[in-house]
Every structure is written in C-alpha cells, then in structure tokens.
Hints:
The structure holds 2 protein chains of 2 kinds. By secondary structure, chain A is of the alpha/beta class.
Amino acid sequence: MPAALELRHVSKSFGRFHAVQDLSLSVPAGSVYGFLGPNGAGKTTSLRIILGMLSPDSGELSVLGSPSAMSVRNRVGYLPEEKGLYSKMTAASVIAYFATLKGLSSTRANQRARELLGRYGLGAFADKKVETLSKGMGQKVQVLASIAHDPELVLLDEPFSGLDPVNQEVLEDILVDLKARGCTILFSTHVMSHAERLCDRLIILGGGRGLFEGTVSEARSLLPIRITLETAEASPLLGILPGVRSMEAYSSNRWRLELEPGASASAVLESCFERSLRLRRFDVQDPDLHEVFVHLVGPSARETALR
Amino acid sequence: MRNALLIAVREFLDNTQTRGFWFGILLVPLLWLVASQVPLILARKGTPTRHVALIDTTAGERLFDVVLDQLKTAESRRELFHFREWAASRLKPGQALPAVDKQPQAWSRFQEDLGPLMKADAGQFAPPAPLNRLVALPAELQWRGDLSEFEGRLRDWMRAGRLFKPLGVDEEVPLFAVAILQDGLTSNAPPILRFWSVNQADTQLQDRLVDALSRNFRSREYSRLGMDSSSIARVEGSQAQLMSFNPRKAEGEEQVGVADLLRQWAPSAFVYLLWIAVFSISQMLLNSLIEERSNRILEVLLSSVTPLELMTGKLVGVAAVGAVMTLGWIGSLVLMTFWTLHTAGAAAMAADSIAHRLPLELATLLLDSWLLPAFVLYFLLGYLFYAAVILALGSTCNNLKEAQNFTGVIALLMMVPLVSITFIPKDPNGPVATVLSWIPPYTPFVMMNRVAANPPLREVIGTLVLLLLSDVAVLWGCARIFKTAVLRTGQPASLVQLARWVLGRD
Lengths: 307, 506
C-alpha cells in the first residue's frame, strides 16, 4: 500500500529544547494511524511540521506525494488540539467557511455543511450561533469543519478529549465512515482504548523520539504474556514448565506466570496436562496497549510530569 | 489570493453585522444633531422662568431702574428672536424676512412690514414665558436696612431651598437669585453688585447686570467730567471694518469669505475623522486577531492559508470596514447639513446667510477640492502603517490584557496628531508642521491637515514616497513577526525578540 504520509529522520528544536528528534514514520494510504505519546512528547509539533506550519530543522517529509502540505492543503483536513470556532457564526456557516478556504465553492460548501450536520445529528442546530451550542456540539462542528471538503488525509489532534461517551461514539462513527471512503486518518490520543479499536498502525512518541512504530498486535508483543494458574493441590513442578520467564506465587496452589517473548500459552497448557496437574483455573492475559504505553514512555513521562 | 479575499469578506461581515458598528456610525451625526439642535430646542421651549429679586441700597442714582431696563430689553430681544423664528416658517412662498433694527423702538415697524409677507393662515404669535422675572421678596426676607443682618437671613433661607409664592405667580417657586446693589467704596467708584444664587454655573444674568451697571456708571462719569456721553457711546460702539484678502485666490476674487474659512478648517475635520477611523478599526483588527489566537482558530486557518494570505485578508477586510464607517460619517454629515437647513426654513434665510450657503459650500468643497482623494489616500496609507504594527504586536499576545500593554504605547504616540489638529491650520507650512510631516506615522494626519494650505509640491511628494516606503517596510517586518509569532504560546515577545524575528534570526 503506498504511503499517504511519510516522515524521514525529521528533527525540530526550539532553542535548546529538542521537540522532535529523528522521527520517521509511514502512514499507509487509507489506514487509520495512531499518534500516541504523553504530554510534551512532540505530537503537536510533529503535526505542525506535517501541516507546513513549522519547518523541520532536518529530515524530509512527503504529504500525499508532495514535500510540503501547503501545496496539497486542499486535500488535507486538520483538527487542532485546542478547539475553537467563531462564536458569532452559525454552525453551518462556520463549516462552510472553512470548506471554502479549502477550495470548495460557496454553494457546494453550504450544501456539504448542512449535509454533514444532518448526518451526524446536528441538523436542527445548523442555523444556531456557535456560542449557543454545548461544548460537545461545538467540538463536533469543528470535526465536521475539518472534513467538509472531503480530504484525502485528515490529521486530528486529540479529537476525543472533552467529549462524553456518546459523542465519542459519534466521533468513532465519523472516523469509520471516513476510512470506509478511503480517507487516511492520523489522530493523536491519550485514550488507548480508542487506538486499540481504531488504529491499523500506530507510533508511540516519547521525548520527541519514536519509541515504537507498527501494528497494535506488534505493540502488544513487546510485553510478555501473563497466565494466572490455579491447581487443585499444591505442586512444586511448575518451575520446569516451558517458556516461563518468571513465576510469582500467590499461595501454595495459585501462581502468576510471565512467559518468555515468543512463548505460547498453549504450550504451557499442554505441559500442565502432560504433568497431570488438576487445573482449577488457567487465565491467559495478553498485555494491552495501555501497559505497552506505560512500559515505553512511563519513566520519561513521569520525569517530565514531575519537572 | 482567493483565500485572502475569503478572509477579508468574513472579517468585513463579522465587523459590520454587529449593532455596535452601526451605532458607532450613527453616533457621529447623532452627536452633531444633538449639539446643533438642543440649544435651538431649549431656546424654543425655554428654560423655566427664573425668579429674581433686586434690592437697591444705593443712596444716589436709582440703579434699580437701570437694572430693570436691562432685564426688559433682554426679554424683548428674546421675544423678537422667537417671533422671527415663528414668522420664518409662516412666510408666503419665495418671501424672505425683512431686516430688523436691534433697537426695540423699530420692532413694531418690523411687524408691520412683515404683515403682507405672511401666509393668510399664519395665526397668532404666542410670546414665550420670560427667562427672568423680577419679583418682590417674601415677607420674612424684607429689607430692614442692615446688609449683614439681611444677608444672614437670606443665606439661611436660600440654603434651606425654600419655595415661595411671589405676587402674580400661581405656584410656589424657588428664588433663583437676589441682586443687591450697593454704592461703590468711594464717592466716584462704580457700584457693587452682590449677587446671591445657588447656581454659580450660569453667569448670564450677573454678567448682564454688571454690564448694565458699568455702562450706566461710565455714562454718569462722562457727564460729571463734562463730556457728551452719547457721543462717547457712539464712538465707543464704532469698529474698524475688516476685509481679509488671500493673494493665492484668483484675480478679482481675493476677498476671504465663508467658503475660504470652510476650506481652511475642513481638513481639520477630516483629520479628526481619519484619526477616529484609524484608531477604532485598528482596535477591531486587534480584537479579531486576539479572538482567533486565544481560541486557536488561527491554527485551523493556517492549515488552509499562508500567514501572508491571512494577514492580507485581515488588513483588507478591516480596511473595508473602515471605509464604510468613514463614508457613513461623511455621508450622514452631509445629509444632516441639508436636513438642518431644511428644518430651519431655507426660504426664510437671507440669501447671504452662512447657514444658507454652508451645505452648498460644503458640497462644492468636497467635490472640487483635493480633500476627498487626499482623505482616501492618507486613510489607506495611515491605516496600513498602524494596522500592520497592531497585527504584528497582537500576534505575540495571548489575550487582550497582554495586548493592551502595546496598544497603550501606540495610543500615546497617536495623541500627537490629535493634539496637532488645531495648531497646524494656523501655521500649516511652519517648522512644526513640516517636521511632523516627515515622520511617517504622523504624515497622513499632518499632511491631510495641510491640504488647504498648498504645501510645497516637493514636500507632498517627498512625504508621500517616504510614507509609502515606510508602509512597505513595516508590512514586510510585521509579516515576518506575524509569521513567527502567530502560533507561538507563552509570554509576549520582548523587543529584542521581535527584532530577531524581523531579521530572521530565530
């Protein structure tokens, strides 16, 4: 699959502060790409570099085949982290205004604005001033404003922050719809469950560097599989089970096992049967993205937070 | 440039679709209307009659009659003014009011002359209530021959704000003033007027009384010294005739008239408009930028447009707002002039009266002179200079409070042309005006003010070129600051940092 967006060894510093260091990533066309990282990891700076608002100190980038997003800006949509709209404009006119700035004719932009507001449950508020809308509605209006021109690539900076669970679902629907029609989506988030559900690939940033890049399952495989095991009677044989890296005993017949990288839980189960262990519980726990995230960025993020 | 235009249109609509904007446009002619009409309305409706008491303690001349005569004459003149106004609106078509002598004796003849000129259904003139009515003091304030004792009672009575019912008046009224006439300190000294009133702001009555007493005293002194007081009064009343000529005017038309005075002072009015326009729309620009910056709309905009497009769009949009605003002011002022003339009764005005010629002279001046083109040119160039600076500084601030630190300094700098409005027309080609003309931020205001004085052509062109170059330099530097600062967060930039951004060192 060709890449809709590529960064190769991109760096950016502000004075002595290195906001982005040697960042490389590749976002396949038509995929949903997660941009994960703690506060101050360089996500917003990276997005601004991608959008052409900031020039990198070094490195190269390709946005929809162009070295600068500004030359393909009408094919790119952007939602910033801090949301804001013109409070005196109506919901429909503000969406239409941003769409005209992206090249749509005034008539077409107005049609699109009303069509999108209707589709995502805001049809009745099309002619209401933005200042009269709730925060969640305003945020949805801004998301719609970023996609009204049918972009090929959408960059969303923390799109879920500030939304209630119902509106988070609506936003997920919007992203699914966008993906279904072939749009490439890159979004940053702190909420790992969204990334797990939506992302085809993701990058985890820490201290301005890319700490991991790959699929969700590849990310999970960075941490060992854990098994909670309970037998009917006390057994000393567990230490010789295959692929077990460490074992923690909760009691004489209950253990928490951590497997070697690449070891499989089924091999452990087979070995238990071979040893005629009478199992009362065999609970396999795959590491989730949250654990991977904390594992990768935890120490540096904690340092940054305390600083 | 399509995006810059879209931004300009939004900026224009955003500013002009508010009630405050149109209220601001209407406010100028409204204030003008109030300033020109309120005195007339007050004169027509009349202030409430003031009740005045007079005590003559003088031993020699009967000054009471002198004061009484003065009050009667003033009331007669006021009545004549109202009568003229009443008559002016009831003349037959094409008729004008005949001239009238200021002496009351001639007024009955004036009314006779007027008779055939009036419409048949003119009706009867109702004279206005008197402005000052002389009344007798209430019983408790009777004069008992001792001034300090009387003034003690008077002070307490007036301080208590008491009301009384004078003879011939049906209601209880306050005592506006008590005038006590006293002999001078020596036998040949002028009399003293002791004027008691709680209203010390309106000095019209006391001035009139002092004037009447002074004239009477002078007249008596002339007689005492054996001089003919009536001849002296006639000589004193004469005045040299002034005929002012301007050598720059066409041959045979050198005499200076109303049109020339208008031509000389009209630029000052335009400078004032220019100042208000530049100042207020620069504020609009700043407010709009701060709104976009503080709620992060700028970030979305900059994903669609370049900083230069954004800056251009905002400058053009707000310039259009300023153009509508100033056109609104000029247009409504011209309309108001015609309207005022119409309501005052154009036909009744003597053909050579200033009020009659003012709108025509104003229209001629606007259409035939360089005023309007100069105004448009200096408005644009002045606006670009200040707006670019405001945009650049505003782009470094996170909120209005931070921005006010900068705008305060700019407002102070802008006070110089405001102060210069009155003194530049008096010496339009003098050293101060010339020096100020060469300082680019002041050039638009000062040169606009000098338009009527035909400044040397080399100065007009030189200052214009310098202003243009300054505009280009300021726009270039400010665009660089804007581009760097607009997405920046944190503390507002220092002057050193601004300079580094302009030089591209950051």
